[in-house]
C-alpha cells in the first residue's frame, strides 16, 4: 500500500514572488494537486468519486513555513492521509530540501465528502484502513478560526469572481482566497516579512460573477504581525454570508 505519496521537483520562477520565495498560493496549489494524485493511486480520486456523484471538498488548512523554498530549489514533497476525525478526513503534507532533507514547510488539511447534486455530506466510509498513515506533519488538525473580539475588521475591497478565479467545478478555486488575502494585506508587509503561518477555513463556495467583500484586521506584537481576512458574499441588502476566513502570521 502506498501510504506516503512522494514527488520531487524544481521550484519554477512563476511560482515565486519578487524576493524569489515560493508564494503561499503556489504551495497550496501543489498540495491540492498532490492530494488528488495520491487519492487516485489509492482508488478515491476525482475520477473514482465522480462515478458515485461525490467529491472531496477542502474545508480547512494550516500551513507552517519553517524555511521558504526559493526559485530553482529542488524540493521533495510528501503527502499522506490520516483517516477520519469526526466529520473530516485529514491529510498532511511535508516539503523538504533535496540536499539535506531540511524541513521547509508542513501542512495539515481537513476534507469533507459531499454529494455533487445535493451538496449534502456523505458519511459512509470510503477509505481502506490499510492506506492510513498516522504520522503528524502538523497537529492538531486545523480548528475553526475565531477572530479575536478586539480586532476591528475594516472593509478594504470587493472582488468580483471572474475567469482567472474559477476552477473546473465552476466556482472560485479556494487557493485564490489566499491570493486575495495576501493582496489586501499589501506589499509593504508581504514582500518585507515572509509568511510564517497560515490558517484558512472555507465556509461557502463562490461562483463566477458573485462579489466577495474583503475585510481586514490585524495586530503587531514586537516583530510579529498577525492579520485576519474574511470574505463575505453579498446576499441581499441586509445580509452577508462568510465565504472564508484566513489567519496569517508574518
Task: Describe the structure concisely.
The chain has 250 residues and is an alpha+beta fold. It has helices at 24-42, 46-50, 175-185, 187-190; strands at 5-10, 54-65, 74-85, 88-97, 103-115, 154-160, 197-202, 211-221, 224-234, 240-249. A ten-stranded antiparallel beta sheet has the order 1-3-4-5-2-7-10-9-8-6.
Q: Could you describe the 3D structure shown?
A:
With 250 residues, this protein is an alpha+beta fold. Helices cover 16% and strands 39% of the residues. The protein has helices at residues 24-42, 46-50, 175-185, 187-190; strands at residues 5-10, 54-65, 74-85, 88-97, 103-115, 154-160, 197-202, 211-221, 224-234, 240-249. The protein has a ten-stranded antiparallel β-sheet with strand order 1-3-4-5-2-7-10-9-8-6. Helix 1 (24-42) runs antiparallel to helix 3 (175-185). The termini are far apart. The mean pLDDT is 93.
Mean pLDDT: 93
Helix/strand-derived class?
A: alpha+beta
Q: Based on CA inertia axes, which overall geometry fits?
A: globular
Biggest sheet overview: 10 strands, antiparallel
- Distinct helical segment count: 4
Order of helices and strands: EHHEEEEEHHEEEE
